[in-house]
Amino acid sequence: MSSPASSAAPMLAREMKAWVLDGPNELRLSTKPVPRPGPAEAVVRIGAVAVCGTDLEVIRDGPPALVAGGLPFNRNFTPGHEYMGTIAALGEGVDEFAVGERVAVEIHAGCGRCTRCREGMYTACVNYGLNYADHDKGHRANGFTTDGGFAQYALNHINTLVRVPHGMSDEEATLIVTAGTAIYGLDVLGGLIAGQSLVVTGPGAIGLMGVGMAKALGAGLVILSGTDRDRSRLEIGRTFGADEVVDASAEDAVQAVMRITRGKGVDYVLECSGAPNALNDAARMVSRGGRICLVAFTHGEAPVNVARLVSNNIYVFGIRGEGHSATRRAAALLAQARFPAKLLHTHTFAFDALPQAIRCAAERIGDPIKVVVKVDERHA
Ligand SMILES: [Zn+2]
Ligand SMILES: [Zn+2]
User: Fold this and answer.
1) Chain center to CA of 366
2) Measured distance CA(162)–CA(304) in Å, rounded
3) Beta-carbon neighbour count of residue 24 at 10 Å?
4) Which of 1, 106, 275, 289 has the most CB atoms around it within 10 Å of its CB?
5) Which ligand is nearest to the CA of 178?
6) C-alpha distances in angstroms, 17 versus 35, 67, 154, 325, 378?
7) Among all ligands shown, which has an atom nearest to the Cα of 123?
8) In angstroms, what is the span from residue 145 Cα to ligand 1's centroid?
9) Predicted local confidence at residue 191, as pLDDT
10) What percentage of the chain exceeds 70 in pLDDT?
């Protein structure tokens, strides 16, 4: 245990298998050099990587990925951002981690030099995507602007590494970053969660994590809403501590919230559905002076009832990813096992079967929540 990291470090392989994005929806298994770490960097040998809804968008449409200033297609780009693994090599001067430690990751390293990075809002880095040629500000967002985790190895800035709690499986560890987004959303809502009431709209992985985390932080009433295609997810929401679940296909979600709260509304809404009318609905679910955090990406533009927001002093926040080191706090909270987060992991695929894993997630084949790809180390 006490041998120096350098002598304990295994030789880093020269080449690795990595999926690359050719055209839209065209992933190809390729070979790339294993990255070498610079100062403040580590190479992670990937153990498992989860498929996120945003991966599906990147692979199909491009944004929010931005590679060398453009769309991520035909640039030898490797997507995937919810990975975990083992530290395989450290850059010069890195002593914050040791080779062999299990780590999960955050996506955004930011540039570390813009106003937002300096405020801890590195997921809103002003220099997002400026990491190439004459524009290189050192920004990284793995799986979006730099290579991600659908590969055997990835390069990470040490600020984007989080130790995996003891006893946590690889599959569950891929959920740490998801929990980080939920914690960031709760932070942005004001942080005072204990005793307050919350609606989570949309029972995807982040929404369900939001339920579990809010209850773990002492929230009072927590209501989770979904539709009739979300039955199994709503059940998990109950297991995670939701006091009430609402099937919006059977009962209007706003009316249900008003029925449950006897017309008062709630303090907070964590909007994780991305539904076109979600903001207007949320504005009718909160009490006067309430707060809404928009987590889900929506498509297209939607009309908003601004007068309702203004006249009721309702605060609206949008978040991207997981800033303010939320991922580290999420890992600490998950380690306390206040709720069975691992229930979110429903499907597992082998590394070579990534396209099938993507299809499973995109088409919801077999009612998945989190689809995880195990990266086969025998090929390393
Ligand atoms: Zn994600
Ligand atoms: Zn920045």
Assistant:
1) 22
2) 38
3) 13
4) 106
5) 1
6) 12, 20, 11, 31, 11
7) 2
8) 14
9) 75
10) 96
Distance 55 CA to ligand 1 centre (A): 7
Structure tokens at 323: 């800033």
Q: What is the pLDDT of residues 97-109, one digit of tens each?
A: 999 999 999 999 9
Residue 195 pLDDT level (bands cut at 50, 70, 90): very high
Distances, alpha carbon 10 to alpha carbons 7, 45, 321, 372, in Å: 8, 11, 33, 26
Average pLDDT over the chain reads: 94
Q: Is the pTM of this model over 0.90?
A: yes
Say if residues 36 and 12 touch (Cβ distance below 8 Å).
yes
- Give the model's confidence band at 380: pLDDT under 50 very low, under 70 low, under 90 confident, else very high: very low
Separation of CA 159 and ligand 2 centre (Å): 13
Q: Phi-psi bin for 35: left (phi > 0), alpha (psi -120 to 50), beta? A: beta
Nearest ligand to the C-alpha of residue 108?
2
Q: How many residues make up the chain in this entry?
A: 380
Nearest bound ligand to CA 53?
1
Structure tokens at 59: 């692979």
Please tell me the least confidently modeled range out of 129-133, 175-179, 250-254: 129-133
Give CA–CA dist 26/9, Å, rounded.
Answer: 36
The tokens for 120 are 């801890």
Distance 118 CA to ligand 1 centre (A): 23
pLDDT at 300: 85
User: For residue 5, is pLDDT > 50?
Assistant: no
Q: pLDDT by residue (tens digit) across 238-259?
A: 999 999 999 999 999 999 999 9
Protein residues with C-beta less than 5 angstroms from the ion ligand 1? 52, 54
Is residue 319 within 8 Å of 345, Cβ to Cβ? no
